[in-house]
Write a structure and sequence with these properties.
InterPro entries: DGC-Regulatory_Protein, GGDEF_dom, Nucleotide_cyclase, PAC, PAS, PAS-assoc_C, PAS-like_dom_sf, PAS_4. This is Diguanylate cyclase. Pfam families: GGDEF, PAS_3, PAS_4. GO terms for molecular function: catalytic activity. By secondary structure, the chain is an alpha+beta fold. The protein has three domains: about 140 residues, 2-Layer Sandwich (Beta-Lactamase), CATH 3.30.450.20; about 110 residues, 2-Layer Sandwich (Beta-Lactamase); about 160 residues, Reverse transcriptase/Diguanylate cyclase domain (Alpha-Beta Plaits), CATH 3.30.70.270. The strands form four sheets. Strands 2-1-5-4-3 form a five-stranded antiparallel beta sheet, sandwiched between helices. The chain has a five-stranded antiparallel beta sheet with strand order 7-6-10-9-8, with helices on both faces. Strands 12-13-11-16-17 form a five-stranded mixed beta sheet, with helices on both faces. A hairpin with a 5-residue loop joins strand 9 and strand 10.
């Protein structure tokens, strides 16, 4: 063992009662502790270090005193050799007085477990001079594993966030975008830096803003844990797009929403396809007005609404006069044009709340909510006049047409829209039988 003042001091301590106090002091520490002389030789080891050595060297006693700690570090091999070299350098800096302390975290894995330690070294001063160093090895495995798990979790979240095929955003409780992913930037047409200066209100379609705010308020007040809705955003080029939005809250320690996690899926193409399918399912392909099925469904709704609130409801049944003759004389292509133009004439004469449907062939149904019989007759006469005044120009021929209309209004004892339509149909036949090109209000004698 190299001779030094510290070694002589330790020998002296061991020879008197003070050493027992010193030994008890360092043995009481949970940290592994060694004392080095100025050459880096171990002159004292505490119980925690000895017990650690016994556990990791097959139960054999390993006498550390007299081993040069610096030499062990400098000649280390294996995965931790890089840290060992840094330890040797740091300890020399402490022993020569260059630094007052040295710290480093390093792995010390066994075949059965992964372990990390924090090494902390400080100079040992005797009579104002550096006579060695005190080195502590503090187990930090639990902390390192927790940090590693957190890092892995953050990495997984970051990767899921950045590479998600749908838009994702972290949003403040006020609605400001805190962090956005590339898919959301692609969807909205803005860069991440642009979006992170905006809030969702800036991009939400005005017609959907109240609904969005209502859902957000319910989330912030903890009335719901999350919400989902379909809404429109207005992207950078001014185009509205449909999206499906799912939002949940990430709470703080008091349970209050700290930030919101939003998933935004572009469903614009799906929504347009749905609208196209709905249009095909509800619209007459030739004239663009309601088809028979959709018209009767709307008529049912209006019938029961009028029944419930006691409001008037009128029904017009309109039929183009002698339409078969038009088809026979000019052909079905011209007949189709007449049908389309006739539907357009009716639409011009109606209000936004009224409904028109093609019931079959040249027959059309017209539903007039909150309309008394006198007003219904006025509308019918307007349609008749506009039709008679129209010349259906087909290039090499001009086609004229007239229309007959039957009118009925809802009665207290009506049980379905069928009662109303039957009376309107009967009044239509009266118009046909009495000269055509006219409107007839249903009377019992009809």
């Amino acid at each position: 063992m190299p001779s030094s003042r510290l070694q002589r001091t330790m020998t002296t301590l061991q020879a008197n009662e003070g050493y027992l106090v010193f030994k008890q002091l360092i043995d009481s520490l949970m940290e592994h502790a060694v004392i080095l002389d100025t050459d880096g030789t171990i002159v004292a080891v505490n119980k925690a270090w000895t017990d650690f050595s016994l556990r990791n060297f097959g139960g054999k006693t390993c006498n550390m005193e007299g081993i040069n700690y610096l030499s062990v570090c400098e000649h280390a091999t294996g995965p931790a050799s890089r840290e060992s070299t840094a330890v040797a350098t740091g300890l020399r800096d402490v022993l020569c007085g260059k630094f007052l302390e040295f710290r480093i975290e390093y792995p010390c894995h066994s075949p059965t477990e992964k372990r990390w330690f924090l090494l902390h070294a400080a100079p040992l001063m005797i009579d104002g001079n550096i006579q060695g160093a005190v080195v502590f090895h503090i187990p930090v495995t639990e902390r390192m594993e927790a940090e590693h798990a957190l890092l892995q979790s953050e990495t997984r979240f970051t990767n899921a966030f950045n590479y998600a095929p749908i838009g994702m955003a972290l949003v403040s409780p006020e609605g400001r975008f805190l962090k956005v992913n590339p898919s959301l930037c692609d969807m909205f047409g803005y860069s991440a830096s642009e979006l992170e200066t905006m809030n969702f209100q800036d991009l939400t379609h005005p017609e959907d803003l109240d609904t969005s705010r209502s859902h957000l308020q319910a989330l912030l007040e903890n009335r719901v844990k999350s919400y989902r809705l379909e809404k429109r955003y207005v992207v950078k080029n001014g185009t509205p797009i449909w999206s499906r939005v799912s939002v949940s809250a990430a709470p703080d320690t008091d349970g209050r929403p700290l930030q919101l996690v939003a998933q935004i899926e572009d469903i614009d193409r799906q929504k347009k396809l749905e609208q196209e399918l709905l249009h095909l399912a509800t619209t007459d392909p030739l004239t663009g007005v309601c088809n028979r099925r959709h018209f009767l469904a709307r008529a049912d709704e209006e019938f029961y609404r009028s029944k419930r609130y006691g409001t008037p409801l009128s029904f017009l049944m309109a039929d183009i006069d002698h339409f078969k003759n038009i088809n026979d004389r000019y052909g079905h292509a011209v007949g189709d044009v007449v049908l389309k133009d006739f539907a357009r004439i009716i639409c011009v004469c109606l209000r936004q709340s009224d409904t028109i449907g093609r019931l079959g062939g040249e027959e059309f149904g017209i539903l007039l909510p909150e309309t008394e019989i006198a007003d219904a007759l006025t509308i019918a006469q307007r349609i008749i006049a506009a039709t008679a005044e129209t010349v259906f120009d087909q290039g090499n021929c001009n086609v004229s047409a007239t229309v007959s209309i039957g009118i009925a209004t809802m009665r207290e004892n009506d049980v379905s829209i069928a009662d109303l339509s039957k009376r309107a149909d009967a009044a239509l036949y009266t118009s046909k039988d009495t000269g055509r090109n006219r409107a007839t209000v249903f009377r019992e004698k009809d």
